[in-house]
Design goal:
about 230 residues, about 50% helix, six-stranded mixed sheet, 10 strands, 2-enoyl-CoA Hydratase, Chain A, domain 1, about 20% strand
C-alpha cells in the first residue's frame, strides 16, 4: 500500500505495520497513508492491529517538519491529533502491538487504541514533550487526561516521566506486557477474538462511552489551530 507502512488483512484482522525510517516518524505522508489503510480496514470490516518495527513503535513526529516553523509544526500536530480522534471512534476494535519504544506521538497512538500489548525489553514509553522544550498541545493534554490514571497524569504530562514497559502498564499506556517475540502474535490472537463481537454494538457503545471525551477532544484540536507549542 505504501513505502511507509504495510497493510495486510486475514481472518477479519487488518494489520498496519509502520516502517518509516529508524523511528517510524509521523510525517504528513505517513498520516495520509495511515488514513488510507484505515479506510481499507473499514471496507474490509476488520479489527485493526497497529504495530511497528522490532524495537520501535514510533519516536514521534517528523522533526524536520517540527523544526521548520511553528505553523508547520502545528499543522502536523493537528493532523496527528485528528488521526488519534479517528482511532478513538473507529467502528471496529483497535489493538496496538507495541514492539518497543513509544515516545511522544508513539505514546499517543497507544492512548488512542482500545487494547495495547507491549513487548518486554529495555524500552521507553511516555510523553517527553516538556523534556525537549515543547509545551504540550491542548489535544495531547486532553487525550492523556482521559486515558491515564490521575496518579500518573501529572507525572507523564507535566514532568515528562518515561516508563519501561511494565511501568507503562501501571501508568496506563499499556494493558499487558509479553515477551518480545510474542507481542504481535498475542495482539493478533486478541484481535481475532475481538472480531467475534457484534460490531454494530461495539461501535454504538464506543461512541456512547466516549461521547463527552470526543467532544472535548474536538474542541482541543480547534484550540490548537493557530496556536503554539
Amino acid at each position: 500500500m505504501s513505502d511507509l507502512l504495510t497493510y495486510t488483512v486475514q481472518n477479519k484482522v487488518a494489520t498496519i505495520t509502520l516502517h518509516n525510517g529508524k523511528v517510524n516518524a509521523f510525517s504528513h505522508q505517513l498520516i495520509d497513508d495511515f488514513n488510507a489503510a484505515l479506510d481499507q480496514a473499514e471496507q474490509d470490516q476488520a479489527v485493526v492491529v497497529i504495530t511497528g518495527q522490532p524495537g520501535i513503535l514510533s519516536g514521534g513526529y517528523d522533526l524536520t517538519v517540527m523544526k521548520e516553523s511553528m505553523e508547520a509544526a502545528m499543522a502536523l500536530v493537528k493532523k496527528g491529533s485528528t488521526l488519534s480522534r479517528r482511532l478513538l471512534s473507529f467502528p471496529t476494535p483497535v489493538v496496538v502491538a507495541c514492539t518497543g519504544h513509544a515516545v511522544a506521538k508513539g505514546a499517543f497512538i497507544l492512548l488512542s487504541a482500545d487494547v495495547r500489548i507491549g513487548a518486554e525489553g529495555p524500552y521507553k514509553i511516555g510523553l517527553n514533550e516538556v523534556a525537549i522544550g515543547m509545551v504540550m498541545h491542548h489535544a495531547g493534554v486532553e487525550l492523556a487526561r482521559a486515558r491515564l490514571p490521575d496518579a500518573y497524569f501529572n507525572r507523564s504530562v507535566i514532568c515528562a516521566e518515561m516508563f519501561d514497559p511494565k511501568g507503562a502498564v501501571a501508568a496506563g499506556f499499556l494493558d499487558k506486557v509479553v515477551p518480545e517475540d510474542q507481542v504481535l502474535a498475542t495482539a493478533t490472537a486478541l484481535a481475532q477474538q475481538l472480531s467475534q463481537l457484534d460490531m454494530r454494538a461495539h461501535k454504538g457503545t464506543k461512541l456512547k462511552a466516549r461521547e463527552a471525551f470526543l467532544a472535548t477532544l474536538d474542541r482541543a484540536i480547534e484550540l490548537d489551530v493557530g496556536g503554539s507549542l
